[in-house]
Amino acid sequence: MSYIRTKDGTQIYYKDWGSRQPVVFSHGWPLSSDSWGALMLHLADSGFRCVAHDRRGHGRSSQPWHGNDMNTYADDLATLMEHLDLKDAILLGFSTGGGEVARYIGRHGTRRVAKAGLISAIPPWMLKTTANPGGLPIEVFDRLRNLLWRIVPSYIKTSQVDRSSATTGQGQNPHRAQSIRSGFRG
Predict the structure, then answer these.
(1) What is the largest CA-CA distance in the chain?
(2) What is the pLDDT of residues 99-123, one digit of tens each?
(3) Cα distance between residue 62 and residue 56, in whole Å
(4) Domains, the chain, with CATH or none
(5) Is the separation of the CB atoms in 125 and 132 below 8 Å?
(6) What are the tens digits of pLDDT across the range 11-33?
(7) Strands of 113-119's sheet in order across
(8) Phi and psi of 92, rounded to 5°?
């Protein structure tokens, strides 16, 4: 099995199949590089070099307590790209892996990157702050939470669980609705 060691000592497992132009895969949470197996096999058979890693805290990589954030994920990806001397790479990221790819480009640039694909990706940070002036104001999220709260109680009232409890004479649990409501308050 192939591993690299990051600057904080974390071991990152990776697969490196094929040759020519590299395609680098970043998986979603809580998956591993195995989630890309069929696509990697197809692309390697088609003449691409396919590289996928198990992000720290996932799969066969170390499970460190610290460093489970986008900046460190991006730096780990940079360490892998440098270790394998990947150039003209196509980066593909799914879900959390999409955030990792976006943060990699933001922190390390495009010197080694030809293209990037973000597949159902999470954005690294959406809220407008002094450190992220291009983000969305908190009022946008407040409106979404308020809209969701108007929808969620109707769903709870008509859910199978509530219908079955009504037919058994148990009634609805008022604490359940309150706990759900509290979860949507900032």
Answers:
(1) 67
(2) 999 999 999 999 999 999 999 888 6
(3) 6
(4) 2-119 (3.40.50.1820), 138-183 (no CATH)
(5) yes
(6) 999 999 999 999 999 999 999 99
(7) 2-5, 11-18, 49-53, 22-26, 89-94, 113-119
(8) -120, 125
pLDDT tier for residue 124 given thresholds of 50, 70 and 90: low
**Residues contacting 141, CB < 8 A, separation 6+:** 126, 127, 186
- In angstroms, rounded to a whole number, what is the distance separating the alpha carbons of residues 72 and 60? 17
Q: Point out which residues pair with 22 in neighbouring strands.
A: 49
Q: What is the pLDDT of residues 51-104, one digit of tens each?
A: 999 999 999 999 999 999 999 999 999 999 999 999 999 999 999 999 999 999
Q: How far, in Å, CA of 79 to CA of 74, rounded?
A: 9
Q: Strand 2-5 vs strand 113-119: parallel, antiparallel, or unpaired?
A: unpaired
> Beta partners for 25?
52, 92
- 93 or 147: which carries more pLDDT confidence? 93
Q: What pLDDT does residue 123 have? A: 67
Residue matched to tokens 């990792």? 100
d(CA 115, CA 136) in angstroms, rounded, equals: 26
Q: Is the dihedral of CA 13, 16, 21, 26 positive or negative?
A: negative
CA-nearest of 27, 95, 43, 32 to 17 is: 43
Both tokens assigned to 3: 């591993």
